[in-house]
Amino acid sequence: MFKMQKYQRIAKKIYQLLPQYEDMTDEQLQQQTAILRTKLETGNHLASLLPEAFAVVIEADKRVLGLTPYYVQVLGGIALFFGNIAEIKTGEGKTLVATMPLYTRALLGYKGNYLITANQYLAERDGQSMGKVFEWLGLTVGIGGSDDDDFETKYRLYNADIIYTTHSKLGFDYLFDNLGSELSEQVVTRFNFAIIDEIDAVLLDGAQTALVISGSPKVQSNYYQISDWFVKSLQKDDYEYSDDKRRVWFTKSGLLKIAQYFDIDDIYDQQYIDLYRHIVLALQANYLKQKGRDYVVDKGKVLLLDVVNGRTMPGVKMQGGIHQAIEAKESVEVTSETKILGTISYQSLFKQFKSLSGMTGTAKTDEKEFMETYHLEVMSIPTNKPTQRVDESDKIYVSNQTKIEQSIEAVKQGIRDRRPVLIETGSVSMSDLYSLVLLQHKIPHNLLNAKTAVREKQIIKDAGRAMSVTLATSMAGRGTDIKLTNEAKNNGGLKVIGTERMTSKRIDNQLRGRSGRQGEPGESVFFVSLEDKMIVENSPKWVRRTRKSLERKIADKKLDSNTKLNSQRFKKVMDKAQKKFGNAEIQSRKNTLAFDTILSGQRERIYTARNKVMAGDQGYFEVIMTQSIRRVIEKFCDDSKNISYEAIADFVFNNMQSDYPLKDILSVKKEELNKKRVVDFLNQLSEDLLKKSLNRIRNAQQLNHFKKLVILRAIDRAWVDQLDYLQQLKNMVNGRGMAQHKPINEFGKEARRHFFDMEDQIYTNIFRSMMLSAIIIKSDGAIDIEFP
Ligand SMILES: Nc1ncnc2c1ncn2[C@@H]1O[C@H](COP(=O)(O)OP(=O)(O)OP(=O)(O)O)[C@@H](O)[C@H]1O
C-alpha cells in the first residue's frame, strides 16, 4: 500500500509536468530524448527523471498513436519501471502501458531492454505498433526475429534500444550463442531490463518446461517396448505415489516382479542400470502421464500439450527418455532419443536480468510465490472503468452427471437470452466428452482444443455473437479477445461457464477474464461436483462419506438429485481442495527450481569457462594444453596400480598415436617400470608428437584457432554428456522408492560428483584431440581438422 501511495505521488508529478510537453512542437518533443540523456550523463539518477520521461512518452503516445494513456495505465507503467508485477485486467491496454517504462529504461543507453511476449505474432503486432512511438522519439526497436536470420540481422535485433521478442526466441538465441566459437558472434549479451507479458504463464505455468537444443540421435534402445509391457502387467500394490502424485515408484512386490519378469537377482546392480532406467520411465509414462491432459496422439505421433495454453507443441519432446516411454505406452513408433546440446529454464533465463518486471491479468492469487521465488511484488492496478462482470458463486452438485446436466441447462438459458456462451473444460478429453453431450442435446457449437487449433481464428471471431456456443480448453485463455456484437452486449455480454475447478484460482480467474473486458457486461459461473477428480483426490475422508450418504438419499428418493449444495461447508471444500492441489503444484515448481538451480550453476561455470577460452590468447591456450598433458598422464599413472607395458601401449594407442610402434614403448626393464619413468616417457612422447603435428601449421593465427577449437570442443563434448547424465539422473532419483527420501539431495550429490569427473573428461578430450586430430593443409593454405 505504501508503495502504491509513492507511485501515486510520482503520477501526480507526471501530470503536473504534462502541460509543458503538450505545448511543445513535435520537434521540441522529439529533442527530449537527447536532453534527458544529457541529464543522465551529467549525474542525474534515472528514477529522478522518471516524471519527465513518462510525460514525454504520454505526449508521444497521444501524437503518434492517437492514444492517451489513462491514469491507471500510468500507474501500471510506474510499477513496471520499479520492477514489480503489475496486475492489469485483460483488455485494459497493457501494450500501451509498457511504452512508458521501456522508453525510460532505454534512455540510459544500456542495451538489452526487452518486452517479452507470449508468441511471435504478439511480438510483431505490439513491436510494430508501439515501435512507432520509440522511433519517433529517436530510439531503435528490434522486433521478433526468425530462426534463419543471418548474423547481421540478429545483431541489429539485439543491439536495438528496445526489443520485442518471445521468451523462447530469446532463450534459444542465448543458448546458440554459447555453442559458437567466437565471442564477437554472440548477440544476446546484455540483460538489462525486461517486462514479461503474461508473466504468470511464463514463470509459473511454464516452470516445468525448459528450452532444449537437441543434437545428434543417441544409440536406439530396445528396452522401451519390453519395459512398457512389463509395467502394464502390474497391479495397484506394485507401485505407489508420493502424496502430491508427482512421483511414482516400485513397492517391494513391484521390485519382486521385476526380478521374476526379467530373471535378475538385483535390479540395482550396476550392470542393469540401463534396463532399470527404462522400467522407471515406463512406470512414469504409464502412471503419471495422462493422454488428453499432458499429450495427445495424432497421426501416430505423441504431441505434448503446452500447459500454459493447451496447444500442441510439435517437435518438442520431453527429455531423458520419457517421451519415448510414452510412445511405447501408446504403441506408436518409438523415435530416437537425442543428446542435449544446451538447455535452460525460463526461471534461469530471466534471473539474469538486472531488473525484471511483468504484467498479467492474474497474479494477485499467487503473490506469495512470486515474492518467495523471484522477489517480485504484485501490485494490483485498478481498472479504468468499473468492472461490470458478475462472478457467480459455484454451483455445487453431488454427482458429476447432474453437474453436466445442469451446466447444459445454463448453456440453454444463455442461448434463450440470446447471449454468447463460452464453456471451459480442463483437458482435451473433457472437451471431447462435453462436445458429445452438447450434440446429444442438439446444441450446435464450435469446439476449440489442441485438435481443432487450425480453425482458432474463425472460432474466436464467431464467439462473441449472440447465441454462439464455444466449447474450449485453456486455449481460449490468455490473450483471447472475444469481441462482442452490439446485440450480444445488449443481452448481457459473454457468459463463461466453467465445468470444473481448474488447477488454481488464478487459472479460474484467467478464464472468467474472457468476459467483461473494458467494463463490458458479462457473467461467469463454475459448475462443480463432489465427484470431480480435483475434489476426490484433494479432500478429507469425510467428504467422500458425505457424498456416499447423499448418493444413498438420492437413490432412496429422499433427496432430489438436482439439489444444489449451497452451504458454506461445501464451498470451503471446493476452495480447500483447489488450494491443496495448488500447493502441490507450488511444491513441484519449487522442486523443479531446486533441480534447475544445480544444473544452472554448472551451466554458468561451463559458459564462463567457454567465454574465457573464446577471449583467450596464445599464452592462455598454452597453459591449458600443458595442464591437460600433465593431468591426463598423471591420472593414468595414478589409476593403473601396477603399470604394465600393455597398459602403457593401450594408453598410447587410444590417446596419442594409434600406430605407434610397439617396440618403442618404453625400453626399460620390468623392475624399473615405475611411475616417474612412465610419466617422463609419456611427457616426452606427447611433446614430440605435438611438436610434429603443430609445426605443420605455419600460420600463427591458424594455430591459435586450432587450439581454441580443440579446447571448446573438449568442453562441449563433455558438457553434452553431463547434460545427458543429469537428465537421466533426475528421472532416476524421482523414481526411487520411499516417500521420505529426498530426490533433490541425491541429485545434488551425484551431480556434483559427476561434474568433477567431467572436468577430467575435458582434459582427456583436449589431450586426445591434440594428439589424434588429423590436420589437413589445403592447397590454398586453409586447414581442415578431423577430430578423433
Ligand atoms: N489509453 C487508451 N485509450 C484508448 N484505447 C486504448 C487505450 N489503451 C488501450 N486501448 C485499446 O484497448 C484495446 C486493448 O488493449 P490491449 O490489447 O493492449 O489490452 P491487453 O490488456 O493487452 O488485453 P489482453 O489481456 O486481452 O491481451 C486495444 O484496442 C487498445 O488500442
Put the structure in a nutshell:
The chain is of the alpha/beta class.
SSE blueprint and pairings:
Blueprint lengths: L1 H21 L3 H5 L1 H10 L4 H20 L5 H11 L3 E3 L6 H4 L1 H8 L6 E5 L2 H17 L4 E3 L7 H8 L3 E5 H11 L15 E5 L1 H5 L6 E8 L5 H10 L6 E3 L6 E3 L1 H11 L10 H15 L7 E4 L2 E4 L17 H8 L8 E8 H6 L3 E6 L6 H8 L3 E3 L9 E2 L3 E3 L2 H17 L4 E4 L3 H13 L5 E3 L7 H7 L6 E4 L13 H5 L3 E5 L6 H8 L9 E8 L3 H6 L2 H15 L12 H48 L2 H22 L5 H11 L19 H20 L5 H35 L8 H30 L1 E4 L5 E4 L2
Parallel strand pairs: 1-12, 1-13, 2-4, 2-5, 3-4, 5-12, 14-20, 15-20, 16-18, 16-19, 17-18, 19-20
Antiparallel strand pairs: 6-11, 7-8, 9-10, 21-22
Helix pairs in contact: 1-4, 1-5, 3-4, 4-7, 4-8, 5-7, 12-14, 12-15, 14-15, 25-29, 25-30, 26-28, 26-29, 26-30, 29-30
The structure holds adenosine-5'-triphosphate (ATP).
GO molecular function, one term: protein-exporting ATPase activity
Subcellular location: Cell membrane; Cytoplasm; Membrane
Protein name: Protein translocase subunit SecA
Q: How is the main sheet built?
A: 7 strands, parallel
Instruction: Work out the helix count.
Output: 30
Which stretches of 5+ consecutive residues score pLDDT under 50? none
Bound molecules: adenosine-5'-triphosphate
First-to-last CA distance: 64 Å
What is the C-alpha radius of gyration, as a whole number of Å?
31 Å
Overall pLDDT score = 89
Number of domains: 4
Structural class: alpha/beta
Spatial arrangement of strands, main beta sheet: 3-4-2-5-12-1-13
What global shape is seen? flat
CATH topology of the largest domain: Rossmann fold
Give the beta-strand count: 22
CATH superfamily of the largest domain: P-loop containing nucleotide triphosphate hydrolases
Q: What is the name of the CATH architecture of the largest domain? A: 3-Layer(aba) Sandwich
Q: Proportion of β residues?
A: 5-15%
Return the CATH class of the largest domain: Alpha Beta
